[in-house]
Amino acid sequence: MTKTVTDVVCPFCGTLCDDLEVVVSDDGKQLTEVYNACVIGTEKFLHSQAKDRVTRPRLRQEDGSWKEISYDEAAEYTAQMLAKAKKPLMYGWSSTNCEAQSMGHEIAEMVGACVDNTAAVCHGTTLIAVQDIGIPSCTLGEIKNRADRILFWGCNPAHAHPRHMSRYSIYPRGFFTGKGQKSRKMIVVDPRVTDTAKLADVHLQVEQGRDYELLNAFRVALNNEWLPDVVAGIPAEKIREAADLCKSGRFGIIFFGMGVTQTLSKNHNIDEAIALTKHLNEFTKFSIMPMRGHYNVTGSGEVLAWQFGFPYSVDLTRGFARYNPGDTSTIDLLARGEADAMFTLGSDPGAHFPISCVKQIAQLPSVCIDPHQTPTSGVSKLHVPVAFCGVEVGGNAYRMDNVPIDMRKVVDPPAGMLTDEEFLTKVRDRVKQLKGLA
Amino acid sequence: METVTITMKNPPALYLEADNVSPDKFAGKTGSQIAELHVYEGNTTSTLGKYFEVSGNAGATAADTKIVVKGDVKKVKYLGMKMSDGELVVEGSTDLYAGAWMTGGKLTVTGNVEAFAATGMKGGELTIEGNAGNYLGAAYRGDWRGMSGGRILVKGNAGSDVGMYMLGGEIVINGNVDVHVMTHAEGGKVTIKGNAKSKLGGQLVDGTIIVFGTIDVMMPGFKPVGTVELEVDGAKAKFAHYIGDTGERKKKRKGQIIYGNLYKKI
Amino acid sequence: MAEYIIKNGHVFDPVQGIKGDKADVAIKDGKIVKDNEVSSKAKAIDAKGKTVMAGAIEIHAHIAGPKVNVGRIYRPEDKLFTYTPKKGNIRMAGGFSIPTTFKTGYEYAKMGYTTAMEAAMPPLFSRHVHEEIRDTPIIDEGAFPVFGNNWFVMEYLKNNEIENTAAYCAWLLRATKGYAIKLVNPGGTEAWAWGLNCLSVNDPVPYFDITPAEIIKGLIEANEYLGLPHSIHIHPNNLGNPGNFTTTLDTLKLAGGYKAKNKFGRDQVMHLTHTQFHSYGGENWGNFESKSKEIMDYVNKSKNITIDTGNVTLDETTTMTADGPFEHHLTELNHLKWANVDVELETAAGVVPYIYSPDIKVCAIQWAIGLELALMAKDPMRCFITTDHPNAGPFTRYPRVIKWLMSAKAREAQIKAFKNSDKVIAATHIAGMDREISLYELAQMTRAGPAKSLGLSGMCGGLKPGMDADVVVYDFSPDKPVANPDQIEAAFSRAAHVFKSGVEVVTNGEVVNNGNKRTIWVNAKVKENPQVMRDIQEKFLKYYSVSQANYESLGHHFVPNPYAIEVDATQ
Ligand code: SF4
Ligand SMILES: [Zn+2]
């Protein structure tokens, strides 16, 4: 016998689909089938069932081998490392629930750590831009119900957010968009001919690193001012046509991704894209939204913001919160040699950071909390495996449009395994003792 | 004017935050009192005297106080933060936030500075004899009130984002600059004696950029309007004149639309 | 639990009619008890020469949820140099106009506030609102979900289906763990989804074929049908525009003829919020003027209306409201950073920083209007002090507002300090007003009054035995003349003692305990209504972007310490 769990939330990308159905064995221990998810999401669920999974913490020995230790010993090690460090870095937080984030922040506050999430290497630049000029946005349901002009700028949802177009942005028939895809015009701006670009009504093949100039040219066009013949590889006439197409809609949206957040100009690209959106609101209704990657990087930013006032790269070392990417941001802290201990949870910097930063991690006292064995766990001194968040434990997560969705537990973790929150609670309690606050 | 000399003896293992090193914080203190001022290394609080040898006493006020910083302070942040008067000379290079939020006085760094020097500067003089990092004379994150007064001179090169959200004052760079100059500015002037790359004056509402060298790529929002003769530092030269950012919102003064100005030497 | 007896203070309690008499207040098991009901072990607090009141109640502030957090995220500069280093088990706290959740709880408590209402909860984001409420220590909190632009409400009310509207409201209050029916720019925010607005109560809402007036009347009827503890709580159309007082009067008139129906002792059927923003005359910013008198004349004679003021505090702050079109209008005026969120089927929100400069005539007139409203109020039980935090200023400025209300001398000094003093005097009534709010009236405007309006008068806002032991001792002597009005501000900024549900949370102006905060919500039961349940199901299937099963705020993480107020509307 099996049972089906409905309305399951997919803990993979920021699309945070919440309509999955998962079939589990009667005893709740085996997950057998996944419906409605895309290939990536399905894989994520099935992967949790891998037979070769590490189920207990492991401490690196002098000879490089791993030794299995108990969760209590792992908590002791982690608490000691954090309590002793002068500037511990607690990084990740994007693939876990808000409950664990909150517990982690309590620890960070007590030990005087820097806390950062994966925005540091994806949409942190977006946040900087938002701080500079704001952001007119909306929830994804608004797009489904109203949007007739869709721009994808520097992003490729066909690959990175596979169900985005079918659930929210291109295909669905909403309240005022009864004709689905036929109600919408789609513009893609990307130097590459991506699978998303192939679906577009208009594809602007912008020259690499010249998004800022192109966005500026859109605004010059809106003001009916002089333009050079070609901007960023695109003829002025084409730019004016695209700007008119935006203006002629009733409700437009710009989605953007790492193609603009992490290329030359970074935050300025987003700044100008937001300025363009604001500008378009003088003619019609327009919104803009980042295509967030990790399923709960948005939640990490939210929790950090209401607890400390800043969405990422928060430095708590002096007993109060400070923020300034370039100083308090993970890559800079590692590259400049500012941190003296590394704690990672819910992310894999070993796979995504520049090699010099990964080398730095390998030299520091380090703990990696992750259900998987990852490049990061590979360079860390202690690896603490935990239950899969969103599969073996529920908890709150925030979708790319900041909508909070409570994830569901669908199966039990292997016997005796702790969740992120449970392990962090042990660490918190121990740190409290070490700091004389218990 | 009294002079206090602090010399680095025990460099920090990580980085040192020395926001108390300014004429304002030293004023009225003896050398031994100065040695008791707090400095911070990560989450530990310690005293200036643990890292630096202090000699001399401060004057009664910031205006009467000169500080000379010697030794290796490449890993010291916040030197001269919020200083309002007096003088601070850093003999060598220093780290982030040199002269951040300064409102007056004279700060001289004989070497290089890293990012965020003169963040939110309101007045005074900052001279950097070497190179400056990114965000020189820029606003703090989220603030629309960047540098509003004072003068910065960089004898070497500067990084990206010089004068972001600038409102007033002047920055002169004898060498080259990286991308983004005076983004979002609404006043002030940046003079670049060397070469610039691209993205100058993006989202500029008002203010002036003068470039003596080359510009790799112009912003489309800068419209050529002819040539003018300008006098800079006593020397006259011909410049191509552009106005912009034409994509940005406009201010009006006496019924006239105001544009930012960009002059490139020809 | 520890027992306390607060001895010899000057007690001000409108609930019992005590006007500054010397009396003792006893606390046992989290409740106020008679003096003789505490044991000899009760800890004595000497309140001689001090003022004793119930904990104050915030009826309208934006302190938790998505738009507040947008403010925090996008204003790092609001935190710059505002933090004080952490001590012991008290959490780090920072920020000025949009403080962190910890600072929010601590600052309210230090001023003697023990209950607060989050004024606008977007239903789809209720889980976010509740996560922040959970992280706001000490104070009890409730949140008002917004209904004024909700598709269900507009569709039902288009056909005047009050019972269905009520059933839907009850369902949504339960799903979101909400407290009251809030309206923000009814109809106008839905229009904003197309970049439009409704500026009068008769402007039709695009597509929905209904007017703001019909939405307002319909929700009054649904509210009284349910018999909720609070009335509808309305931010009317046309906020912030010169000449808008006529729209405000049109809105108030819609309450005419309705009578409150509830078991909570509430008398009003409409609460008009941040009235200052809705009491403007003139046709433009040049001839902008106060219409506080016209508004208060109407309010004073209408027993079924309560209001709060929305006092401008002359600070740099962050405006935030579900009035999306207003925030867009504002950013076009001041060119500062603009955030906007349109929420599917429900509402929208905008955020823009704003500087109320004493050097700008309009800001000074706004300052005067807010104070005039309170000074013209004939019944302090129906006019409450707010700053519409953070819209007209941060709530941390309440002590300053209290100073201006209690001291004509303080007002005079401020008027003199305005750059355009003469023009301000000409456009307002403030200069001629000599009324000074008494401590008893202050207790009405900040304790007993809001408690009654919220339907909480059995629980808080007074010091009657049996009520929650929310008690404040201020280091302020009602006997001695006030030499310098700044003494008033100092005393009300940092209470000498604050008890929340019997726990001492503040001593000598410092937080000493993180308390045991509760989330207050309203559980209204209605007759089974299959049609409304079907409609809800259909809207989730077709138009929402989340599934119905994932919509509700449930469980320990979101509402760890709930306090549900039961309402039975099945009869
Ligand atoms: S689109 Fe993203 S959230 Fe949805 S199923 Fe695929 S991986 Fe999961
Ligand atoms: Zn409000």
Please give a structural write-up:
The complex is a heterotrimer of chains A (438), B (266) and C (571). Chain A has 438 residues and is α/β, with parallel strands linked by helices. Chain A is 37% helix and 21% strand. Chain A has helices at residues 39-47, 71-84, 98-111, 124-133, 140-146, 157-160, 164-169, 195-198, 211-222, 236-247, 258-261, 267-280, 297-308, 330-335, 349-352, 355-363, 375-379, 420-434, and strands spanning 2-8, 20-25, 31-35, 58-60, 66-68, 88-92, 114-117, 134-138, 149-153, 185-189, 202-204, 230-231, 234-235, 251-256, 285-290, 314-315, 322-323, 341-345, 366-369, 382-384, 395-398, 404-407. Chain A has a nine-stranded mixed sheet with strand order 5-4-20-19-18-6-7-16-17, sandwiched between helices. Chain A has a five-stranded parallel sheet with strand order 11-10-9-14-15. Chain A has a three-stranded antiparallel sheet with strand order 1-2-3. In chain A, strand 16 (314-315) and strand 17 form a beta hairpin. Chain A is globular, with a radius of gyration of 23 Å. Chain B has 266 residues and is mostly beta strands. Chain B is 5% helix and 38% strand. A 13-stranded mixed sheet of chain B has the order 5-1-6-8-9-10-11-12-13-15-21-18-17. In chain B, strands 4-3-2-7 form a four-stranded mixed sheet. In chain B, strands 14-16 form a two-stranded parallel ribbon. The mean pLDDT of chain B is 97. The radius of gyration of chain C is 22 Å and the shape is globular. Chain C is an alpha/beta fold. Chain C has two domains: 4-54 and 460-511, Urease, subunit C, domain 1 (Roll), CATH 2.30.40.10; 58-453, Alpha-Beta Barrel (TIM Barrel), CATH 3.20.20. Chain C is built from 17 helices and 24 strands. Classes of the chains: A alpha/beta (438), B mainly beta (266), C alpha/beta (571). The interface between A and C is large, with 65 and 64 residues. The complex binds iron/sulfur cluster (SF4) and zinc ion.
